[in-house]
Prior knowledge:
Blueprint (H helix, E strand, L loop, with lengths): L18 E5 L5 E5 L4 E2 L6 H11 L3 H7 L6 E6 L5 H13 L6 E7 L5 H8 L6 H10 L6 E8 L2 E7 L2 H6 L5 E5 L14 H9 L1 E9 L4 H10 L2 E6 L6 E7 L24 E5 L3 H12 L3 E6 L13 E3 L9 H20 L6 E2 L3 E4 L3 H14 L7 E3 L1 H8 L19 E4 L3 E3 L1 H9 L4 E5 L2 E7 L2 E6 L4 E4 L1 E4 L17 E11 L10 E3 L3 E2 L6 E5 L3 E2 L8 H14 L1 H9 L10 E9 L6 E6 L1 H7 L17 E9 L5 H16 L8 H7 L3 H8 L3
Parallel strand pairs: 4-5, 4-8, 5-7, 8-9, 12-13, 12-24, 13-20, 16-26, 24-32
Antiparallel strand pairs: 1-2, 2-3, 6-7, 9-11, 10-11, 14-19, 15-19, 16-18, 17-18, 21-22, 22-23, 25-28, 25-29, 25-30, 26-27, 31-32
Amino acid sequence: MAASADASSLPTALSHAQLDWRRDDAELETPHSRHFDDVYFSRHDGRAETEHVFLAANDLPQRFAAWSCARPFTIGETGFGTGLNTLCAWACFERYAAPGARLHLVSTERYPLTRDDLARALAVWPDLGDKAKQLVARWPEAVAGVHRLVLAERVTLDLHFGDSAERLAHLDGRVDAWFLDGFAPAKNPDMWQPALFEAMAHASHPGATFATFTCAGVVKRGLRAAGFNWRKVPGFGRKREMLAGDIASPPADIRRQATPWFQPPVPLPARHVAVIGAGLAGASVAHALARRGVSVTLVDKDGPGSGGSGNRQGALYVKLAAEANLQSRFYLAGLLYSRRWLAEIDPEQQLWRDCGVLQLASSPRERQRQSRFLEHYGLPETVVTRVNADTASRLAGRGDAMRLGLAADDGTEMGGLDYPQAGWVRPARLCEYLAATPGVRFQEGEAVRLERQDSGWQVHLADGTTLEADHVVIATAALANRFTQTETLPLQPIRGQVSMLDLPPGVPELGRVVCAGGYAPPALDGVQTFGATFAPNTADTDLREADHAANLAELERTLPGYVEALRQAGVSLDPASLSGRAAVRAASPDKTPYAGPVPDAQRWQADYGVLSKDAKRIPEIPGEHHPGMWISAAHGSRGLASAPLCAEVIASRICDEPLPVEIELADHLHPGRRVISDIIRGH
């Protein structure tokens, strides 16, 4: 029941900013936009301009010093540009804010700089060098959408790449202070439109302030019409005047009129959270909350990284639909986020490798599907690119030994897609690492019942002990709907078995993760992992020789040259000789994870029952949820690309922050989507 994907929000590649480099008044190199024929900051003193126009006019030093809310102080910006405003706000926050305060920045950008241009532009201010280095290191690909960057322990930046008005219209979150920046209205009239000011108003906290360098009439009229009060104040440098102001009572969020059931629950205190399940879904939620200063108890009956997250190696990959839809938009965002997240928490790559992933076109039909995919998405080659069979074989390994199974029935070589930034992860080790995050306490035990009290939640364990917490997050895969509050959420168990064989010295090794009907990553510590089988509605974990045989057959179809090299090296390919591991994952009916608050299904059936007779008769009733209860489940075989971003969605909601995904993607992940669809269908 989420909104459909509109063309303006598709995850397409954006054009980079085209720059000229000129000397400012101090003979320092400064960037000039060719597209807008305008400067990015004052030639007189860009940093002083930022501090006067945006920091001082929004009264940020005083507001940072006085900030005592549990949620972060949020700044919204129209036009990220070189990032100077962000770095200055970050430096101001570090100087004035109390130790427990947090800063969240939301910035839009239609023409992002290249990484090299960004570094060059910020090199003008050496004292901001450490911050600039952090920003440049995390700089995302120029893909439309939301890119979350954790700049420091207490500072988060969400880059919304795309048109400012359109991006803010999709923002799920509210802002305390606005930097109304961007090229001058005369140079960039497309940005300074009523839709921009209306989107700002809807995304404002009551009392949110703004500041802008311009006094243009179109800006004053647009702000006033949207509900902002403005006043003229002294400008910077040669500009005599600028505008500053606030909005006392932002308008209601009309985006929820069509989907009132997705109205987020009222934020509750989050001092202590119990997370049930220490696989990738639960461990990443625990890590995300602890990073925000929340105390977490992580509960699991077996230990971190058991169950479906217990394999030695897993592929960080996605298989996106040929035509962009909400599910594919989410998984692409998840892949890009997981890549940055892993680089942040493990820069030495002890837990993962960004070796790349080859997704083979092993049939004419798959080749056609991949062609449609490339046409519809238009993504940068640094994210995904088509490769022919020769290039795919070269990327997969060395020479003929890595000959791929890419010939169609007519002998045509099929090629495939290469994701150069994807790779493989050690899931079990990653879960152990996340469970050891400061602020996370692991407790072995099996949660059997959850009970809501006035003070929060009681988690009853099988051994008779009880935990108390303000919030509870359920992340137990196929068992996530075993509790009374979650029993209406359908989950399908899926058994999967991977196979492993020891490699003798000298055997060629894979250079990429190769995916077709199964997957095979580069060997780890001399052991080749490959698989996995797919058995829906099966929950046993005993190893099966037949599954080893199926994995071997798929490996030979995909990598015939590699399997032949193994035979020549004397490696036994008898299924009975293989080791392996079987585990159970979970999937939802629509194959999208559940990530968000748990709906009160009985209340939803009562409040929205009229939809079964007329889906257009939408009651004006916000959705009721079990207060302080959340779920992250149904990640299937793509959890490495989905669970970390879902963890950020849940942690952001709990901590009352802007979300790292657009509003329609948050609704698409909402666990209540199935409840509503069942009501409409009369189930």
